[in-house]
Design goal:
With 113 residues, the chain is mainly beta. Helix content is 0%, strand content 50%. It contains no helices and ten strands. The strands form two sheets. A six-stranded mixed β-sheet has the order 2-10-9-4-5-6, with no helix packed on it. Strands 1-3-8-7 form a four-stranded antiparallel β-sheet, with no helix packed on it. A hairpin with a 6-residue loop joins strand 5 and strand 6. The radius of gyration is 13 Å and the shape is globular. 30% of the residues are buried.
Length: 113
């Protein structure tokens, strides 16, 4: 079955950086578009970024464009989200997803001084 395990979240000061990882198993990782989504307290799910199967096409929400970078390593069945210039409004639980479907349990990112 599909398993997605996020890691790398934590508490960071505004302007700081974090790198999230998503370890995938239970499916052929290399043929799927993968995504990152987030959910802030009291808000709905926001799709933050997508990356196609080959890693050469990406999408970013306007809210993170220019600050976040998505990547993947198909040999390691792992996807990443490099988050720079973090803002308090980036505080959320971040989820790894297979396409816009199955999601992991999430990792908390808190941006606060």
């Amino acid at each position: 079955q599909v398993q997605l395990v996020e890691s790398g979240g934590g508490l960071v000061q505004p302007g700081g950086s974090l790198r999230l990882s998503c370890a995938a198993s239970g499916f052929i990782f290399s043929i799927y578009t993968m995504s990152w989504a987030r959910q802030a307290p009291g808000k709905g799910l926001e799709w933050v970024s997508d990356i196609n199967s080959g890693g050469d096409s990406t999408y970013y929400a306007d809210s993170v464009k220019g600050r976040f970078s998505i990547s993947r390593d198909n040999a390691k069945n792992t996807m990443y989200l490099q988050m720079n210039s973090l803002k308090p409004e980036d505080t959320a639980v971040y989820y790894c997803a297979r396409g816009r479907g199955s999601r992991g349990q999430g990792t908390q990112v808190t941006v606060s001084s």
